[in-house]
Amino acid sequence: xxxxxxxxxxxxxxxxxxxxxxxxxxxxxxxxxxxxxxxxxxxxxxxxxxxxxxxxxxxxxxxxxxxxxxxxxxxxxxxxxxxxxxxxxxxxxxxxxxxxxxxxxxxxxxxxxxxxxxxxxxxxxxxxxxxxxxxxxxxxxxxxxxxxxxxxxxxxxxxxxxxxxxxxxxxxxxxxxxxxxxxxxxxxxxxxxxxxxxxxxxxxxxxxxxxxxxxxxxxxxxxxxxxxxxxxxxxxxxxxxxxxxxxxxxxxxxxxxxxxxxxxxxxxxxxxxxxxxxxxxxxxxxxxxxxxxxxxxxxxxxxxxxxxx
Length: 309
Hints:
With about 300 residues, the protein is of the alpha/beta class. The protein folds into 3 domains: about 1-95, Winged helix-like DNA-binding domain superfamily/Winged helix DNA-binding domain (Arc Repressor Mutant, subunit A), CATH 1.10.10.10; about 105-170 and about 270-305, D-Maltodextrin-Binding Protein, domain 2, CATH 3.40.190; about 175-270, Periplasmic binding protein-like II (D-Maltodextrin-Binding Protein, domain 2, 3-Layer(aba) Sandwich), CATH 3.40.190.10. It has helices spanning about 15-25, 30-35, 40-55, 70-95, 110-130, 180-185, 210-220, 230-240, 250-255, 285-300, 300-305; strands at about 1-5, 10-15, 60-65, 65-70, 105-110, 130-140, 150-155, 165-170, 175-180, 200-205, 225-230, 245-250, 260, 270-280. The chain starts with a strand and ends with a helix. The mean pLDDT is about 85. It comes from Lichenifustis flavocetrariae.
C-alpha cells in the first residue's frame, strides 16, 4: 500500500490500482493500457473509476485525442512513478541474484528479426534449457528494459542509457532490390541521372535506419515514392509485386526468387546488431543463458546476415 497525502487528498492506495492509472496516462487510451497490462479494456476503465472514487478527484480527462492527466493526476503520477522506480529497482536487484535456469524471459526486437532470425534460434534453446520460457515480442518501439517491459532487447541502434549493458554481436547487410517485372516495365536505372522514371518503396521501421534511407535518397533523387510502410515485411511483399526499388535486408530478400538484387555504384551501408540488457540482470542465470544463446545464434548466422560478397 502507498500512503498519499496532498492538499485535499488523503488515501491509502493499492499499487495495483496505480498501475492502471500510470499505463493509461502514458498511452493516452484504454486500449493500449489494456494491451500492456494484459487485461480487458473494461477492466482498465473500472479500475480507473475505482481509483478516482477512492481519492475523490478526477485524475484523467477524456478528450477527442485521448486521455489527458489533470493537475491532481499529475501529483498522483509523480508519487506513483517514484514508487514504481524504487519497486522496479528492488525487483531487478533481487531477480538479478536468481541462479535458477527456469522461468520466463521477455525478448524484444524488430518484427523481421523476430520472424527470421530469433524465432529459429530461440526454438533450439528449449532443448538445452527446457525450463526457460522465452516470450518473443516483435515491436518496432524500443521497449523499456528499466521499466521491465522486456528483459532483453536486440536492437539495430546502440543505446547510451547508463543503466544498460550493450554489446555488438553482429551486422546486417542490405541491398537494392526490384522484381523482374518492375525492371522490365521501367528499364534499368540511370544512377548518374538520379534514376528518373523509377519508383521507390520507402520504409519507416527500425530495421532500416537513416544510413540506408539517406543512401537511397542520394542514389535516386529523381525517383518517386510509390509505397511507404512502417514494416519491413510489407516492403518485401510490395517490392515482390512490382511497387518499385527498395533497400532490403539481404537475409530476407536474397532467398526470394521473385526479387533481383540490383548492382549499384556504391554498396548499401550495413547495420550493426546490438544486444541489450539491464545491468541489474547480469547475474540472473536464465537471462544470462538467453543472452549467450542469442549471441551464439546470431554469430552462427553471420554468413546469412552479412554475406561476404
